[in-house]
Amino acid sequence: MTSTIREGFRPIPDLALKKSHPRNITGSILTTLAGLFALIAVLPLVLVLGYVLYKGASKLSFDLFFLEQPAPGLDYGGIGNAIQGSLIVTLIASLVAIPIGIGGGVFLAEYSRGGWFAQFIRFGTNVLSGVPSIIAGVFIYSSIVSTRVLFGNAYSAMAGGIALAVLMLPTVIKTTDEGLKLVSDDLRRGALGVGASRFVTIVRITLPSASRSIATGIVLSIARAAGETAPLIFTALYSPWWADGIFNPIGTLSVLIYKFATMPYDVQNELAWAASFVLVVFILLLNLMARWINQLTSR
C-alpha cells in the first residue's frame, strides 16, 4: 500500500521566485512604469508647492498680516485687508451653503423615497459639481450684481459669498447624503420604536452619527471655495482697503494675487508671492483637517 501512495504522489513544484522568468520580468517593468507615472502625476504639485514656498516664505513678516496693501510706488504694506476679506467672504459662503446643503442631503437620505424628484436633485447636484467656477460667478453677476437686489448695492462681499456658496453646495449635499446612508437603520428603528418622531430621530440620532462625514465634506468645500478667483472678480470685485461692510466691494487673497502678479512693480509682485504662500498653507491646513476628521470616522 505504501508503494501505491508513493506511486500516486505528485512532487511539490518549485515555488521559489524566479526573477529571470519572463512573467516576473514583465511584472517588474510594469510596476516600475506605474511608479514612474505616479511620480510624474504628483511632480507638478511638488514643484508648485516648492516654488511658492521658496518665493513666498521669505516675504513673511508681522506687518504682512496687519497692514493694508501699499499704493503703487510705495514699498511698505501688507495683505491684511485681503486676508480679512477672504475670511469674511468664506464665512458668508459657509453660512449660506452649510444649512442649505445639509438640508438637501437630509431630504435625499431621510425623506425622499427615490422618486423622480430625488433623482432630479441628485442629477442636478452632480452636474453642478462640474460647472466651472467662472460660470457661477457670471450667474451671480447677472442675478444679483447687475440687478442690485441687495439693497441697491452692486459688487459686494455678500454677492461674492453667495457665488462661493453655489460652488460649496454640491459637496455638502453629497457628503451629507452619503454620510446619512451609512448610519444603521437599526438606530432609526430603535428611536422610532421608543416613540420618537422622525424629526427627533434625525436631529438626535442620525445627524450626530454622521456628523464626522458631514464635517469632512464641509471642510473640503470651504477649502475649494477659499481658493476661487473668477467668481469673486465678477461679484466681490476688489477693494484695497479694510472691509467696509458686507454690501461693499472687498479685497480677497485670490483676487489680490491675480492683480499684483500682473503689476509692473517688484513690491506688488513680492506681495503676490507672499499671498500665494498664505493661501496655499490655508488650503493645505483645511485638507489636513479633513483627512484628520476622516481618520476619526474610520476608527
Architecture overview:
With 299 residues, this protein is mainly alpha-helical. It contains 13 helices and no strands.
Note the beta-strand portion.
under 5%
What's the total number of strands?
0
Roughly how much helix do the residues carry, as a percent range? over 70%
C-alpha end-to-end distance: 57 Å
Alpha-beta classification: mainly alpha
Average residue pLDDT = 85
* Helical run tally: 13
What's the shape? Answer: flat
Keywords:
13 helices, 299 residues, flat, single chain, mainly alpha, disordered N terminus
Show the helix and strand layout:
Elements lengths: L1 H7 L13 H35 L5 H5 L13 H32 L4 H14 L3 H13 L11 H25 L3 H9 L4 H12 L1 H16 L3 H6 L17 H9 L4 H33 L1
Helix pairs in contact: 2-13, 4-7, 4-10, 4-12, 5-7, 6-7, 7-10, 8-9, 10-13, 12-13
Compact overview of the structure:
This protein has 299 residues and is mainly alpha-helical. Helices cover 72% and strands 0% of the residues. The chain has 13 helices and no strands.
